[in-house]
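Priority: medium. Attachment 1 of 2:
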């Protein structure tokens, strides 16, 4: 583990200070590339305009025509939190804008696999739909779109995933990552894309005289859902995504949110009046994702779309129960998968450049979570495979992968598929997360081919775990009010939460709960409590620690606490974030 302080561009801090940004926050923002206070302005007017999205004009014309003609609309969603929130935003927004017949269909992870397939298009047609709308999928669904068109449906694809070599022949495609799209934010989640389509659709309907600016539907009510899906999908929090998240958080903290979101805060024991991105990423998001992993994402979508408070509470409790089951499956599966991965280590110490593991007993709904844990532990691109549970697909393996900075996972799969035609049956995804399907008989071939690409693309520097920090912390900033202010800011993927590092004296250390290291630290002469979750090895009396700031409340007393992330010569963990 190398702990590396972030560099701060010359002049950035002073520009932020002139805008009355707190000195510590100015330093933190400047280190993350913020050059002016304008980038921190989260007013709705600062959002990028929808007009920049290629295909959006055609999409809203089709949608406006369909609403006017009272045609039947069906949303085809994905079975993760981004897909569920995008579906909820689409349903709620279309109905707010006048759609008389709007429904949805969500694929089953096991039976249907990912995306708009030909069978799903046929099922949509059987519902009587005139128009099929995808959310968080569809950009790679060439066959599924073709079948939908053959059946007489018009098709609007809204997605954010990277396209393949051929685009589907949909009536309209809205995706910031499609060729020719100049929209500045390439990192929008699927829920963000759908929200933007609704913004443009409202403008189109207003221009047609359906309503005016004074009585138009208030689509900003959907922002809590947009914020949740954006954070849960771990997309890069660029300036536009940060604004979407900040706007959603503000509403939630004021108590303005869908009944399902409020119920999920209650079920996870979180305070909505102090809502943060941590709550989205580590409490609400996993509970919704659990439905798609182990049960039926219909539960998650119904929770987010119902206006019945009692029903929302029941569904949230159901999601909480499913998530507890997911954790139990994950723990046993993770331990077994990690032992398999560590067994691949050269000389018993050094992991191979990429890791692929499979066991017949693995649960396909949890392979992505387990791949993420192995990646975090060994700092290697990782694929975890499970046998498909789909009828007739028993000899196929479904794999989910997670990557490290500097290794584009989807591009790696693309190269493997070109070098070994027929090896990968299906694949798709992003730079940091991707999925693929292979024949069970070809697992060994995939493992070798994937490792070979990693061997060619990764060097020693990339394979060395690095933790960027904000350097030493001045003792004047050890203030609970300031820490609370920092916690309420928007942090996440590509805009990391503040982590500080410096050499500290450890005056005492002991284990608590058998797996957490409780510390008493000396920071510039003052005693500070610290804890390193899920770490049991003792530390030297003086060592360089990387830590986050937290507030520990005990018997009415609020004290600053350091949450240790890593030590210079030790492997750190993510800590107990509420899974």
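Attachment 2 of 2:
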């Amino acid at each position: 583990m190398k702990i590396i302080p972030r560099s701060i561009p010359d002049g950035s801090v002073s520009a932020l200070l002139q805008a009355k940004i707190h000195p510590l926050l100015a330093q933190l923002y400047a280190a993350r590339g913020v050059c002016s206070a304008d980038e921190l302005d989260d007013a709705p007017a600062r959002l990028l305009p929808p007009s920049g999205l290629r295909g959006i004009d055609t999409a809203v014309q089709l949608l406006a025509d369909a609403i006017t003609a009272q045609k039947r609309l069906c949303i085809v969603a994905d079975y993760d939190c981004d897909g569920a929130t995008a579906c909820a935003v689409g349903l709620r927004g279309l109905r707010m804008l006048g759609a008389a017949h709007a429904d949805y269909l969500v694929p089953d992870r096991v039976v249907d696999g990912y995306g708009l397939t030909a069978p799903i298009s046929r099922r949509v047609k059987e519902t009587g739909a005139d128009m099929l709308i995808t959310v968080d999928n569809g950009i790679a669904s060439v066959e599924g779109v073709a079948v939908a068109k053959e059946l007489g449906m018009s098709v609007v694809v809204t997605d954010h995933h990277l396209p393949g070599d051929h685009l589907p022949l949909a009536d309209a495609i809205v995706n910031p990552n499609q060729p020719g799209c100049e929209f500045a934010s390439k990192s929008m989640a699927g829920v963000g894309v759908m929200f933007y389509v609704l913004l443009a659709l409202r403008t189109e309907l207003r221009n047609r005289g359906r309503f005016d600016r004074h009585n138009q539907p208030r689509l900003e009510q959907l922002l809590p859902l947009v914020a949740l899906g954006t954070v849960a999908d771990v997309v890069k929090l660029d300036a536009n995504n940060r604004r979407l998240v900040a706007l959603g958080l503000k509403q939630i903290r004021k108590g303005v949110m869908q009944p399902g979101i409020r119920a999920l805060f209650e079920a996870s024991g979180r305070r909505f009046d102090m809502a943060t991105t941590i709550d989205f990423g580590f409490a609400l998001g996993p509970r919704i994702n659990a439905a798609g992993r182990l049960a039926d994402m219909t539960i998650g979508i119904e929770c987010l779309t119902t206006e019945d408070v009692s029903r929302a509470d029941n569904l949230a409790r159901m999601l909480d129960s499913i998530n507890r089951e997911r954790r139990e499956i994950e723990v046993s599966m993770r331990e077994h998968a990690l032992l398999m991965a560590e067994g691949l280590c050269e000389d018993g110490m050094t992991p191979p450049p990429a890791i692929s593991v499979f066991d017949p007993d693995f649960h396909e709904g949890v392979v992505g979570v387990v791949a993420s844990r192995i990646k975090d532990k060994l700092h290697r691109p990782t694929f975890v495979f499970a046998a498909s549970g789909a009828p007739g697909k028993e000899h196929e393996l479904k794999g989910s992968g997670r990557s490290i900075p500097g290794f584009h996972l989807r591009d790696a799969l693309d190269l493997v598929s070109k070098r070994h035609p027929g090896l990968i049956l299906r694949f798709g995804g992003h730079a940091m997360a991707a999925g693929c399907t292979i024949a069970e008989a070809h697992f060994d071939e995939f493992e070798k081919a994937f490792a070979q690409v990693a061997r060619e693309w990764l060097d020693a520097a990339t394979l060395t775990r690095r933790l960027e920090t904000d350097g030493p912390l001045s003792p004047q900033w050890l203030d609970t009010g300031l820490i609370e202010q920092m916690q309420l800011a928007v942090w996440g993927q590509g805009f990391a939460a503040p982590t500080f590092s410096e050499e500290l004296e450890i005056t005492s250390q002991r284990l608590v709960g058998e797996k957490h290291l409780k510390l008493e630290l000396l920071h510039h002469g003052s005693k500070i409590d610290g804890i390193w979750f899920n770490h049991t090895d003792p530390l030297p009396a003086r060592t360089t620690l990387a830590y986050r700031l937290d507030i520990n409340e005990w018997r009415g007393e609020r004290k600053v606490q350091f949450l240790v992330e890593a030590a210079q010569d030790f492997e750190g963990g993510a800590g107990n974030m509420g899974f």
